[in-house]
Design a protein that fits this description.
Radius of gyration: 45 Å
Largest sheet: 6 strands, antiparallel
Strand content: 15-25%
Order of helices and strands: EEEEHEEEHHEEEEHHHHHEEHHH
Oligomer: single chain
Structural class: alpha+beta
Length: 389
């Protein structure tokens, strides 16, 4: 049978109306289920697929049929004996995480919601004895509605039962090289923590906008065998501890998917530097309490006009006080005695010497000593000839 295409009615029931994507062994179409009147996603395997792939298709069908979780797409039907074989899946209206990352790094809150949803779906799959083995941004769907916490896991096409035999040849690698765990890169048996490692790399890419390992497939696989991914990007600071555990080289050191989901759903801690240089985690919620932050921000953001008005008031007050003090200084000066001090000589010019009546203005103050302001007591300008004691 010829490979199906858009515009055709597949197997007399599914009207193919859009090609959603093509993989190495299958193509995915958006179709209308004519009998039930609902949109579905049809995964059609290529007619050139090898017979050895049948086992893998059967595992995918059984894995999806046995899983019921909000973060995992639902399998409606599976016809593995048809030509070509196909699966009928729930259609999720939205975009893949790969497409979302293509527009740039995600906000931390959005990345944590998506990661928590994916981790919870993986936890359900792991509890059922299933390892996804191909966690990557292209296999995580973000629904257009209602929110990122409804993200869904796609394509369990290479999933297998834990402890079951692998259909791939010994030493071969299944999965996307950029997101493989170290044990997958070695071609070894995988465990649920392999999915956790891959999800850790996906979260790093969500937060930074770039893959944790870059280069050719050989280079990135070799790199992950030698070292964990770098976590020094500031965008990773809040989740660096969790990401470090998720991407540990030793699978035994990684958390379970359920633990990852729980931690991603918890409030993000804010790193504060306490006395002595010790870093302390403080829950973000506490930082939003009105008693802790809001009053401080209001005090720091006083309008400039208010500040200038306050400074002007202080300046006026200072001037008023200065004027009052200068006016009080004469009153606070020492009171002169009735007779001049022995050390002071008071000279009152006579009419003959002055050539006229004595002046009583402030121009001739003649301050000759302490206590003299120019008109000592008893000297009103009418005394005559007093030139000395």
């Amino acid at each position: 049978m010829q490979a199906p295409d858009v515009g055709q009615t597949f197997h007399g029931r599914y009207a193919l109306r859009e090609r959603l994507g093509d993989g190495g062994t299958a193509s995915v179409f958006l179709a209308d289920d004519i009998e039930l009147g609902r949109p579905v996603a049809i995964k059609v395997y290529g007619t050139e697929s090898e017979v050895s792939d049948t086992e893998r298709r059967q595992r995918e069908a059984r894995a999806l049929a046995g899983l019921r979780h909000p973060a995992i797409v639902t399998l409606f039907d599976a016809r593995l004996d048809a030509t070509p074989p196909y699966l009928v899946l729930e259609h999720v209206d939205g975009e893949t995480l790969a497409k979302r990352i293509g527009r740039g790094a995600l906000p931390a809150v959005e990345a944590r919601l998506i990661g928590a949803a994916a981790a919870s779906g993986l936890a359900a799959a792991h509890d059922a004895g299933i390892v996804h083995r191909d966690i990557k941004p292209a296999n995580i769907m973000i629904p257009a509605d209602p929110s990122p916490d409804a993200a869904r896991l796609l394509d369990f096409g290479i999933a297998h039962s834990v402890g079951g035999s692998r259909a791939t040849a010994v030493g071969s690698v299944v999965g996307s090289a950029v997101y493989l765990s170290p044990e997958q890169a070695r071609g070894k048996d995988v465990t649920p923590t392999s999915d956790v490692y891959s999800l850790g790399l996906v979260l790093i890419e969500c937060l930074t906008g770039r893959p944790a390992f870059t280069g050719t497939a050989e280079e990135v696989m070799a790199a992950r065998l030698l070292r964990p991914p770098a976590l020094d990007d500031p965008a990773l600071a809040a989740d660096a501890g969790l990401l470090s555990r998720m991407t540990a080289l030793d699978a035994a050191d990684r958390p379970t998917a359920a633990e990852v989901a729980q931690e991603l759903q918890a409030p993000v801690a804010t790193r504060l530097l306490a006395a002595g240089g010790v870093a302390v985690d403080v829950p973000t919620e506490r930082m939003t309490q009105p008693s802790d932050v809001a009053p401080l921000r209001r005090r720091r953001r006083l309008p400039l006009a208010v500040v200038l008005a306050g400074l002007g008031g202080l300046l006026v007050t200072a001037l008023v006080v200065g004027t009052l003090v200068s006016g009080l200084l004469p009153a606070l000066a020492p009171t002169p005695t009735d007779s001049p001090s022995p050390d002071v000589v008071v000279v009152t010019p006579s009419p003959d010497e002055s050539g006229g009546p004595p002046d009583n203005d402030d121009d001739d103050q003649g301050d000759d000593g302490p206590g003299n302001s120019g008109n000592a007591p008893g000297n009103d300008g009418k005394d005559k000839g007093d030139k000395g004691p």
